[in-house]
Fold this protein.
Amino acid sequence: MTRLAAASLAGTAIEFYDFFVYGTAAALVLGPLFFPTFSPLAGTLAAFGTFGVGFLSRPLGSVVFGHIGDRYGRRPVLFASLLLTGAATVAVGCVPTYDSIGVAAPILLLVLRFLQGLGLGGEWGGAVLLTAEHAPAERRALWASFPQVGPSVGFLLANGVMLALSAALTDAQFHSWGWRVPFWAAGVLALAGLLLRSSLTETPQFKQLSEAGEQARVPFFEVVRGHWRLVLLTAGALSVGYAVFYAVTTWALAHGTEQLDVSRTAMLTCIMAAVAVKGAATPFVAMLGDRYGRRPMCLTGCAAAALWMFPMVALLQTARPLLIFLGFLGALLAFVTMFSVVAAYLPELYEPKVRCTGAAVGYNLGGVVGGALTPIVATAVARGDGPPWGVAAYLTAIALLSLGCFALLPETLPAQARKASAPEPTEAAAA
């Protein structure tokens, strides 16, 4: 389990490094480089628009790679998704700017971002099922939480490289070529990830399905026909996690540097420190999910997010790094209370033969609602000199939507699920 968890964590870290480095670049440099004819605000919105395309393609990636995972095994998904995302990310670092090739530059950026999202849409399902289906039932949330640490590690890698380059280079050098270096580095990381995953074995549950010949013929159609309500509920439930995370890591970065005149280095440091604490806390919070249940943790996280969005915006508006960090930390701790257990929760909601497709589609549809729209909506709503209370209201509304969706989902903790489904004993049997 340790080897499997380490390989899953490393793979998701590399995949999310690729995804996050684009988000940071969109907040800092892509607007003026690829949309120079736009105003600063419109350029930022356009850059975040290309950022959002990656979320729109993630559900499609989960359908394509989910089909592979449910028909041919979880293991092939891990290789194909990592290869696709890594190649697309390296290519982004090679795209000429608008000044060199005109309108072809943002079009190429859009296509490559779409491919990034396609690969990442398949990665999560494969990596999570690899650990969840190998793990013992009583520790499933703990072991399945390790792939969930991967996004934090990937984010820290992406922003650490950006921060180092930002500090070491002049603004002219950073805008000229420095921003490309993190994208090129993705090629080396992808090769390392493929090497790590080369020794992984197929999961026991898929082996049983394969030996019995019980794989779904077209998994996506079976999910739509038999589990559409579950997919919509999980998508709505997970949307708050994406909204909170990208409000902190993408919109707040742009807002702090452009509207509040906080230095790029200070904003990146605040965000990275909060993400580091979140990543370290993930396995420990997941252990609570193995003890008390998946659903109670998710409901608690949603409620905490709903209560914290206005204080977070108020702390951000002070433009004081320590207070900004505290605001971000509170938001990400609410986030991790939910997302530390969803890697066990979502697979447990679906039957094994459509699990790779169903869990991944629900997870990535939540990204469309919460991740793709949040930076765009927040940037548009936050116009003006006053505090962006509209952003806080928007995030609170999504948190309440997710709270309602989680309330409609069942508990899946093995001990509690068995107890809930057991028939009531008759009087004679009890005696």
About this structure: DSSP finds 20 helices and no strands in the chain. The two ends are 43 Å apart (CA to CA).
